[in-house]
Amino acid sequence: MKFQTLLLSQVLLYSIQASSLPNDFRRSPTSKEKSTLEWSKCNLDFKNELLNERQKSFDCATLEVPLDYTNAGNGETINLDLIRVKATKEPSMGSVLFNPGGPGVSGVESLLSLGEIMLPILGGQYDIVAFDTR
Fold it and tell me: Which residues form the signal peptide (predicted)?
């Protein structure tokens, strides 16, 4: 019971903190109400024949985001490279974002190496999406 009380109090505290965020922090002025990604077959050059071969069964896209979310109105943006391995079972349950963490670790290369292993662990009903932060 003590654990549940502690957990509930943390959730309440975070909810109060989130509600006090300024509106411009919640949604950047450059964001759109509806945004779509244009996924296509990957055609990246990894300088590694195995990764170049594996990418043929993955989709890639580019996501334009503000360079600085605290100053998103200045119009400066960067492009993030995204990669996706599609769900293998129906019905699709949406997407899971994979971030391998750690400095210098490529999310794109990590998903190329681990994506087909991760699909069955997640039940095969989720697309798995990863990104490169640099």
Answer: 1-18
Integer CA distances (angstroms), 4 to 7, 8, 10, in order: 5, 6, 10
Q: What token pair was written down for 55?
A: 């990418």
In this structure, the dihedral spanned by the alpha carbons of residues 86, 50, 113 and 91, taken in order and rounded to 10 degrees, is: 10
The residue type found at 78 is I
The DSSP result for 34-70, as a single string, is: S-----EE-----S-HHHHHHGGGSEEEEEEEES-GG
Q: What's the burial of 6, exposed, middle or buried (CB within 10 Å: 0-12/13-18/19+)?
A: exposed
Q: Are residues 65 and 77 in contact, defined by beta-carbon separation less than 8 angstroms?
A: yes
